[in-house]
Design brief:
This protein is α/β, with parallel strands linked by helices. 38% of the residues lie in helices and 19% in strands. The protein has 13 helices and 13 strands. Strands 4, 5, 6, 7, 8, 9, 10, 11, 12 and 13 form a ten-stranded mixed β-sheet that branches. Strands 1-2-3 form a three-stranded antiparallel β-sheet. The protein starts with a strand and ends with a helix. Bound molecules: magnesium ion (MG). The site of magnesium ion has 5 residues, from loops.
């Protein structure tokens, strides 16, 4: 039996650049992350990345290390057994959110990477392998902090790079009128034309009634979805907005674990389920949420880390598109290619990723 032998967690500060359109909101800003290597007694290495702890990144690294200690000696194929043991270790067998979930996800992703490497199969095939290419959209370039001119320039750059889908943001800084908000998406639409799919993220910035008002006014621009229009845990408020607008509403990236998605689906809060794999608890939990969404006739979309999430979206019949957020690309030697606006699934085993050791050394916190 293969066993987990050792681990290494490293805290990094990854530059927050915008390699897609070279339009960063703030020069020189970095994002704290923790990378994980999980090693087996037969020489396999599973890798993962976790973050969202911000200035508490040191605490996340410590949490991850303490949890990895509890995984030493375990059979990496018994993932649900390992997850149950880790949950029990906190005294809360049903859950534990926050740091626990952020660390659990790294362990779970690394275990799936090991599984794929052992079986010599790419992760998306282990999980169902529904497609070997998936649509993707450029994210992180058309931020709300840009001027209209900068947003138009960035949109033109994304088009020139062949993107067929892209995401912008509303809930603009300052004290924008509803007309200001609509103008921002209109100026982008003017540049990209009618056929490019344009998503728009509100990042929980509006009240439900504001979302209904601005959502109605923006309907003629033609958005592929409006995302996180109000607080993520206001399931009923979201449902009011979803019922009132023709534009599909997406949401879910802020939720921890799987149970909140059940609430969200029951309340008809959104038209498109977005899952953050790190908050959800890793690949194992992502697939459970995808199944719930499929049963409810809802598409599922990913949040950040396309190089990892491409596998889970491609695996599922209801996977809609992959967010191409380039935050972590620099951490890896090679990441999946985009051809004709679609991500091509790698054929290498597991995640198909290798840390770029030079980048890891350079970004060390
Ligand atoms: Mg979002």
């Amino acid at each position: 039996m293969m066993k987990i032998k050792s681990y290494e967690a490293i805290a990094l500060n990854v530059p927050e650049e915008d390699p897609l359109a070279n339009m960063p909101e703030e020069e020189g800003r970095t994002r704290p992350v923790v990378i994980l290597r999980l090693l087996t007694d037969n020489g396999l290495e599973g890798i993962a990345v976790t973050f969202y702890a911000g200035k508490l990144n040191g605490a996340l690294k410590k949490t991850l290390e303490q949890m990895c200690e509890l995984v030493i000696g375990e059979d990496p194929f018994r993932i649900e057994h390992i997850v149950a043991n880790l949950r029990n270790s906190t005294g809360d067998p049903t859950g534990a959110g926050g740091m626990f979930s952020l660390a659990l996800s790294a362990i779970d992703i690394a275990l799936w990477d090991i599984k794929g490497k052992f079986l010599e199969q790419p992760l998306y095939k282990l999980l169902g392998g529904h497609r070997d290419r998936v649509p993707t959209y450029a994210s992180g370039s058309l931020r709300r902090g840009l001027t209209d001119d900068q947003a138009q320039e960035a949109a033109a750059t994304l088009i020139s790079k062949g993107f067929k889908q892209m995401k912008t943001q509303m809930a603009l800084p300052g004290d924008p009128s509803p007309a200001d908000e609509v103008r921002r998406v209109q100026v982008i639409r003017d540049v990209i034309g009618p056929d490019i799919k344009l998503m728009c993220d509100i990042n929980q910035g509006w009240r439900p009634e504001q979302a209904i008002d601005i959502g109605n006014r923006v309907e003629d621009v033609g958005l592929f979805w409006l995302e996180d229009v109000t607080r993520a845990d206001d399931y009923q408020g979201l449902a009011r907005v979803t019922k009132s607008l023709k534009t599909p509403i997406a949401g879910g990236e802020y939720l921890y674990g799987i149970a909140p998605f059940h609430q969200m689906i029951q309340a008809h809060s959104v038209d498109i389920i977005m899952v953050d794999i790190i908050r959800a608890g890793g690949v194992t939990q992502w697939m459970k949420i995808a199944g719930m969404a499929e049963a409810a006739n809802l598409p599922i979309v990913s949040h950040v880390m396309p190089e990892i999430l491409v596998h889970v979206v491609a695996a599922c019949p209801n996977g809609l598109t992959v967010e191409y957020m380039p935050w972590m690309l620099e951490l890896f030697e090679e990441t999946p290619e985009i051809v004709d606006g679609e991500l091509v699934l790698p054929n290498k085993p597991g995640l198909g990723l290798k840390f770029d050791e030079k980048a890891v050394a350079l970004f060390k916190a």
